[in-house]
## 1
Amino acid sequence: MNAAEQARGLNVSTKIAALINLFKSEFPDAKADLKPWRNDPETLSWVDPDSIDIGFHFPGWSRRINCHSILVQIRFYQDPLDAKKRLIGIETAGFSHQGQAWRLSTVENWQFFGSYQPAIEPKEQIKHFCRNVFELFDRSL
């Protein structure tokens, strides 16, 4: 779900701001997009209501990262017994004008997949960002 729609309380809003800063500390020229999903019925049918989704756009195409935008989906599990959301994983995907170029899932052994993957240094920066997000959300929402 778009981060802008998830930012309903001070706790979540503060964490969203912190994760934007974490990403920008790795990629300073990225611009955050708190509404990466369109608001049409078809798109909304794919949206996970238990995620925080943020897009990051670069000024032009980045040769090092092999994309011009990165979608970050912070995935949570809603525990029915205690009503708290717990972080279960992070999905990232890089997009070019041709569509998805690569993806990384922390659920799938932290491996990059795709035809046009980032260079080694940006891969490590993305993984470092993901580790920091896990630390940020080490307590449930």
## 2
Amino acid sequence: MSDYRPVPEADENTFRELVHYAFSPEDGPFEDASSDSEPTIGDHRGLYDDHITAVCRHYDLPVELRASVIAAGGIGGVASDPAQRREGHVQELLAESLAEYRDRDWRLAFLWPFDVGFYTNMGWATTSKLATWEITPDDLDGMAATDAGNGRFERLSADDWPRLEPVQRADHDTALAVRRSEGWWREFVFDRYDKTPYVYGWVVDGDVRGYLAYTIQGGDDGRTLVVREQAAIDTAARCQLFRFCRDHDSQVNQIKFYTPAEAVTGDGFDPHLYLDDPGACDATVTAGAMARLVDVEADLPAIGGTTATTTRFDLVVTDPLADWNDGRFQVTVGDDGIEQSIRASDEYQSAQIPTAHLGIGPLSQVVIGARSADELAHSGEITGDDEAITALGDCFQPTQPMMRENFWAVR
């Protein structure tokens, strides 16, 4: 068994070297960077044998879910020693991370996958999907405001983050919206280290009504304005943001931006509804962040949900990484949703209690609201008594969650 522990200052350079090799091998050998260029958010963890075999960074990531703020953690920068890959070090590192999250009473663990199948096999499941849109500046006319009206654009700095927060919270008001700290605004919105964006706000009477953070990529043969984040208080403000992008037509060939995947089907902001030529802009839908429950027994009543007609049902859960989640749980439902979930002893007999069988990944999707219990039952990922499946679905109805914070490769 390896030793899992915080990475001491003496090993920080090795930590950065492993992460650099994992995510930017094309840049060549790692050169020691000054501490000024390193993130201050997040805690470094390492798995040690006689040296570091795998590393990751933990983030305190409280999210809004089912009318509550849920304590959760993000896992980023997962990397292993390239000379010791496929020896189970990353799996052990993630198992130890979950145990630490359990001790901290963090209910969910998020990550951005380099390979969805790899993390699915360890109990994570996709919680939301992203739509990536690309369009030429000229084709933005239908989405862009025709003039500045009574506002103006203002270049913003990290000290302006309190002006942006109300806009971000209003526009990103979905399940899994992160309660950002000041540090998160400064380091993940205004400063991505080697990818520091421009940030401009649309200001009316001194109030920021919309903003966008973007970078410009490419060279003389073609440049793309990549909108990393956008938020607007209303449609008029959003049209001003697209006017700002369109007016870069002398500098860039393409505009690239992201929305929740539901926009493709017209739920929420749908670019197709605003374009003069809807066919000029197509979206590519990809899997977004993944999540999993940390501790089933504690998580189900803590995250809450709605009531069910069945006041008692059992869940038989399989978890390939956290043995405390592997087994049968007795779930009791009260007037305000799930009152308690108790891990059953080995001698416990269900005694005709309605029972559903499922893996930790599908259960996590139901609890978060990414997929319904009925949908997962139809696909065979939940089996058992219809009464138990219906009760689970009643307690945790779909929420259309969206994890927007991308922390996977920040070094």
